[in-house]
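thought: user wants a sequence for this fold. calling inverse folding tool.
action: design(structure=
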């Protein structure tokens, strides 16, 4: 009887999780691959609810949804459940601009300032940025100037213009393609200026409606409706809906079926909303001068797409274009083969590799249709080391990527590139990690453990290490950039080594994740003249440091300034102060008032404490443990309630309107 009851329960659970599905005859193998990939992500805890769609010849031949869009009500996801699609939104911005070109309102090689005269930068080269450069990511703009939110609370366009006025370019306009969100926000502003409509209204009128995209809109945090919620792992907390208001850069929501309808507009037999000339612009490669240095295909050499060709399919004469999109809560990918009139789209809640899932589905579709398809290359024996050519010795030195700094040292005769970690430095009492070793053979350096190969590139006095033919896609990507030596190293006015900094301008409505509220700056005696905060920076004088890793995305300079007699550090739109300025949190009942200048107020737990809070309307309390790997969030009033155990050293942020009063009970 117990076994029978268990079986009934299992059947009920499976029935409850079975969502709407449509599958045409002849696509069973494709559906099987999709189901395996999505369920692997969900059952591993990486993802939550998901939606998949496959289009062939303008018809949806497979569509399926997985999981509950909202758990408390057991509302299952279906084909009309919307997900935030992140940077997949960029292709809608690309089409919007091409539509305006068709209307005769701009050309792709117009300077951006022609249409946005209020756009200025400290670096005078900004005047040479063209509309086309915004879409192949070659503008040279520094990074991403926006904040994920739970509800709209600031003017995204005004913030970007304010930040850019005091910013420099990373490189000359058009020189190379480096992923850049801010260029698409400028494109959004151009669309609004030339159309006289909001970006969302223009896209709805000129793209969504003509293509029958009934379930596409602004981000789910702005529009609500039949949407997928995000639940974290392992706590399973339900988070508020995510608002992303840089609509052109990453702020649209959609369904997998709608994304396939959009993709079909680029195919040979699809419903075209673009002229033949502008459709050609959307499909062709848009390489930069730097591309000639690469041994293979480059990512971003396209008009809005991540890539215009996948090399393995190009070899068979088939063009495959792709665009991924990731927000804090969602991951999306879209692939389209225009000549075959095929499209695949995947959206999933959680930090999942949607591009990887989408690609396996696309490969299965090509195979099932009897078309050329990607197959994993056969295993090869490890490369035997060869002596390193003398001309490569000039590439020895110090390199960076992200917040990591390393030293390249060649063992020429043994054919080994040893990569020694300089930063992050080991904690006190820990030994430095052993160097990574790449074997030189047949003109490249090989990471035998990862199966990845690398080669060096130089342009002028800049030197780089590129990854060759990344797994599955076959394209080349930047791995490291060499730091230039500083003849007369300078130091910042404040001590920076090992200093913990806290955010002072987080919004009460902001979507806050681990590592967002604090950062630890560092320096290395091995790298005089450089400081590491959000990214590597070269010290220019006592109060400022410039971007050092000029070939990576989202890089920021820093400046010190005074506010209320205290020093603040600014990086793009973020403002920080030293964490040791936070006042000690008193035992018992105490009040905390947010400053009139709009800054966040902070307190530090000087001993282990149990805390509870009385929070004003739309106020926010977030506690972090700065000893965690990335300053782990241990409490966030946006999703947590009740008492908080705050271990000694915990930092508590209070965000609200100027003059908001919080009450804290500490025991």
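)
observation: tool returned 667 residues.
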């Amino acid at each position: 009887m117990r076994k029978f009851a268990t079986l009934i329960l299992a059947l009920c659970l499976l029935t409850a999780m079975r969502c709407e599905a449509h599958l045409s005859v002849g696509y069973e193998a494709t559906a099987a691959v999709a189901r395996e990939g999505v369920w692997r992500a969900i059952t591993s805890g990486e993802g939550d609810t998901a939606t998949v769609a496959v289009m062939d010849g303008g018809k949806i031949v497979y569509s399926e949804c997985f999981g509950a869009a909202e758990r408390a009500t057991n509302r299952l996801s279906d084909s009309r459940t919307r997900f935030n699609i992140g940077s997949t939104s960029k292709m809608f911005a690309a089409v919007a601009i091409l539509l305006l070109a068709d209307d005769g309102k701009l050309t792709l090689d117009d300077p951006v300032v022609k249409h946005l005269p209020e756009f200025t930068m400290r670096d005078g080269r900004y005047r040479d940025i063209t509309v086309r450069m915004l879409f192949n990511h070659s503008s040279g703009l520094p990074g991403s100037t926006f904040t994920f939110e739970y509800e709209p609370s600031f003017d995204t366009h005004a913030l970007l213009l304010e930040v850019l006025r005091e910013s420099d370019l990373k490189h000359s306009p058009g020189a190379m393609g480096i992923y850049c969100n801010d260029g698409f926000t400028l494109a959004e502003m151009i669309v609004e200026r030339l159309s006289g409509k909001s970006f969302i209204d223009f896209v709805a009128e000129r793209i969504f409606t003509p293509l029958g995209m009934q379930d596409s809109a602004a981000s789910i945090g702005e529009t609500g409706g039949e949407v997928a919620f995000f639940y974290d792992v392992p706590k399973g907390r339900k988070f508020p809906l995510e608002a992303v208001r840089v609509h052109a850069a990453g702020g649209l929501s959609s369904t997998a079926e709608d994304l396939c309808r959009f993709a079909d507009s680029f195919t040979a037999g699809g419903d075209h909303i673009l002229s033949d000339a502008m459709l050609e612009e959307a499909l062709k490669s848009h390489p930069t001068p730097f591309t000639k240095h690469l041994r293979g295909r480059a990512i971003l050499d396209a008009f809005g797409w991540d890539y215009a060709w996948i090399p393995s399919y190009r070899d068979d004469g088939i063009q495959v274009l792709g665009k991924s999109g990731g927000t804090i809560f969602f991951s999306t990918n879209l692939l389209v083969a225009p000549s075959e009139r095929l499209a695949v789209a995947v959206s999933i809640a959680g930090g999942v590799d949607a591009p990887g899932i989408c690609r396996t589905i696309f490969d299965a579709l090509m195979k099932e249709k009897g078309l050329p398809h990607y197959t994993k290359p056969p295993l090869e024996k490890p490369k035997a080391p060869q002596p390193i050519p003398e001309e490569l010795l000039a590439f020895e030195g110090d390199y960076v990527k992200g917040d990591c700094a390393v030293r390249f040292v060649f063992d020429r005769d043994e054919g080994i590139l040893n990569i020694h970690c300089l930063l992050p430095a080991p904690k006190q009492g820990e030994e430095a990690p052993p160097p990574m070793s790449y074997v030189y053979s047949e003109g490249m350096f090989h990471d035998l453990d990862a199966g990845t190969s690398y080669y060096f590139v130089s342009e002028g006095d800049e030197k780089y290490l590129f990854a060759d033919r990344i797994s599955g896609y076959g394209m080349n990507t930047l791995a490291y950039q060499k730091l230039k030596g500083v003849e007369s190293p300078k130091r910042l006015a404040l001590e920076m080594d090992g200093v913990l900094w806290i955010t002072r301008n987080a919004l009460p409505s902001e979507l806050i994740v681990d590592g967002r509220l604090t950062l630890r700056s560092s320096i290395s005696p091995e790298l005089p003249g450089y400081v590491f905060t959000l990214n590597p920076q070269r010290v220019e004088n006592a109060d400022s440091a410039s971007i050092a890793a000029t070939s990576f995305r989202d890089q920021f300079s820093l400046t010190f300034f005074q506010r209320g007699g205290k020093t603040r550090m600014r990086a793009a739109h973020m403002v920080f102060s030293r964490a040791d300025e936070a006042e000690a949190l008193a035992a018992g009942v105490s009040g905390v008032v947010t400053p009139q200048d709009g800054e966040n107020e902070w307190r530090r737990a000087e001993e282990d404490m149990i805390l509870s809070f009385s929070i004003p309307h739309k106020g926010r309390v977030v506690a972090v443990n700065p000893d965690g790997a990335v300053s782990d969030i241990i409490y966030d009033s946006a999703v947590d309630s009740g008492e908080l155990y705050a271990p000694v050293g915990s930092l508590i942020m209070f965000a609200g309107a100027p003059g908001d009063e919080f009450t804290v009970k500490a025991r």
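thought: summarizing for user.
answer: Here is the designed sequence. The chain has a mean pLDDT of 94.
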